């Protein structure tokens, strides 16, 4: 079992089963918890924090039971909620320091850690401004800062890129990547945007309607398909000419934008592709293996 483990975890509300016999382990590192809205991701986080008692089944967080060890778990775990919950009339320095003290840090250590994390998340210059005047990206950074200020062993990030523009989304993902891979803090991050998790997660857990669809290392999910993309330099229509030449050799070929996709069933076909490019007097830019995306994996699992 990793930093989190559940066995037959079930949570029922009056009209819906939010988690349905969920058995999953979340290892150290960065784990993405993937699912559409309503899949059960936020419910799982509430159970892990000891804020919601499961209907049945068992759960462990850092070797402890949230139902009986909730206060201790919350000392060792950071949490960034999805929804906006920041007090508008309080500045980030005051808020993050308060959360540090609430997590058990002495005042002197809390003050030092607050300064460090606000600088890390890019709020050093804005730390004394009331958070009610912050942009969405700044508010998300403040929420992230309070989640890591007490140097937790595990952080639970619920949709941390929610509402962000593309640039702010990239910056938030870089911060999450740094926390998990440079700071050595295990991260469980939920998202319904699969491409995000493909960029930063070591492991992926796919949930749908409270059920586990798949749990695996990201590299296993995004494995090689057996296809390659061939990009060439040449006059207009060079990719079509190459595609036709490969078709004439009996290969399975289809267009992929300005590239040629080729089904490779034998390594010798790679030499044949290279030779065809040379014969046509074209420049070979790259032959790139095609990998599954998480989007494809999720779609495949959901329809089974």
TrEMBL record:
SUPFAM superfamilies: P-loop containing nucleoside triphosphate hydrolases (SSF52540)
Listed Pfam families: ABC_tran (PF00005)
Swiss-Prot/TrEMBL keywords: ATP-binding, Nucleotide-binding, Transport
Annotated GO MF terms: ATP binding
Segments forming domain ABC transporter: 4-234
Coiled coil: none
Listed CDD domains: ABC_DR_subfamily_A
Cited PROSITE patterns: ABC_TRANSPORTER_2
Superkingdom of origin organism: Bacteria
Stored PANTHER family: ABC TRANSPORTER, ATP-BINDING PROTEIN (PTHR43335:SF2)
Family: Belongs to the ABC transporter superfamily.
Name of the featured protein: ABC transporter ATP-binding protein
Organism name: Luteipulveratus flavus
């Amino acid at each position: 079992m990793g930093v989190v483990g559940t066995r037959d975890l079930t949570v029922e509300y009056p009209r819906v089963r939010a988690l349905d016999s969920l058995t999953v382990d979340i290892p150290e590192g960065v784990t993405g918890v993937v699912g559409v809205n309503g899949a059960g991701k936020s419910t799982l986080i509430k159970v892990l924090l000891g804020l919601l008692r499961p209907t049945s089944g068992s759960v462990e967080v850092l070797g402890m039971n949230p139902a009986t060890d909730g206060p201790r778990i919350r000392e060792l775990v950071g949490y960034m909620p999805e929804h906006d919950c920041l007090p508008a009339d309080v500045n980030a320095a005051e808020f993050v320091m308060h959360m540090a003290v609430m997590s058990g840090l002495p005042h002197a250590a809390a003050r030092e850690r607050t300064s460090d994390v606000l600088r890390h998340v890019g709020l050093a210059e804005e730390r004394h401004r009331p958070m009610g005047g912050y942009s969405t990206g700044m508010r998300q950074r403040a929420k992230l800062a309070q989640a890591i200020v007490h140097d937790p062993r595990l952080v639970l990030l619920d949709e941390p890129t929610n509402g962000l523009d593309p640039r702010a989304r990239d910056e938030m993902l870089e911060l999450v990547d740094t926390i998990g891979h440079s700071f050595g803090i295990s991260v469980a991050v939920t998202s319904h945007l699969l491409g995000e998790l493909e960029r930063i997660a070591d492991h992926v857990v796919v949930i749908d309607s409270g059920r586990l669809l798949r749990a695996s290392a990201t590299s296993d999910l995004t494995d090689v398909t057996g296809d390659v993309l061939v990009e060439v330099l040449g006059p207009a229509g060079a990719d079509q000419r190459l595609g036709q030449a490969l078709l004439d050799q009996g290969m399975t070929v289809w267009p992929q934008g300005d590239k040629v996709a080729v089904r490779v069933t034998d390594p010798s076909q790679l030499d044949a592709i290279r030779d065809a490019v040379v014969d046509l007097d074209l420049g070979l830019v790259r032959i790139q293996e095609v990998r599954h995306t998480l989007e494809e994996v999720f779609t495949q699992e959901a329809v089974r």
